[in-house]
Each structure stands twice: as structure tokens, then as C-alpha cells.
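Second opinion, please. Please look over this fold, written as C-alpha cells:

===
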Amino acid sequence: MPVTEIDAKIDALVPAWLYLPDIAEMLDIEVTRVRQLVKEGQLIAVRRGENRALQVPAAFIDGDKVVKGLAGLLTVLRDDGFSDEEMLEWLFTADPTLPGTPIQALSENRGTEVKRRAQALAL
């Protein structure tokens, strides 16, 4: 299956990926629960690699938990009409005014500013 343009773009932006079983192990939960988090929109998973296995950006996991504020931010972006690919692109594209990427700011506990920007996108 050929890599689509968005896949290549997202691949270039997202530095590291995790398979769902790895996330389950890190969060100390069942893989079915990780799948549920994806289904509920609390995590974004995309099919990647030769076997097209579901993978989640490693930056979404902070040690043994999901990055604080991520689920709420994804909800805001989804409400703005963003697709999963568009959300990933926005989260991992550097913003000099933040500074860094929105996902970096979120993991550094600067979630309020990131959420404000996400809400402004809808205007």
C-alpha cells in the first residue's frame, strides 16, 4: 500500500511512535482500554508502517499517563472540524509564538495557552 502524502507529512512531523501494546504497558492498562481511549477520541492512532499497525505519537504519553490536557484539546480540535491528520499536523507543527509545538507546550504544562489557540482556530 503506497504511503499517502499526509502520511509522509505526518511522519516527518512526529518524531516517535508507539504501538498500542507498548502504551498499554506504559499506562499499566489492558490493550483493549487503549483501543477504547482511541475510540473515545482521547488519543489519536494512525495506521503506519509496512503492517499498517495502529500507532500513537509517543509525545502523547508522559511516563505512565496520557499528557495532561490532551483529551480536552483533541475534543476542541475535533469540534473545530479537524480530522485526525489535521490535528496531528497542528499539534506537531512548530509555532514560534508558543514557542515550540503545541504538543510540547501541552507536555510542559502550558495547556491553557494551547487550548486558547485551538479555540481561536474555530473563529
About this structure: The CA atoms of residues 88 and 95 lie 14 Å apart.
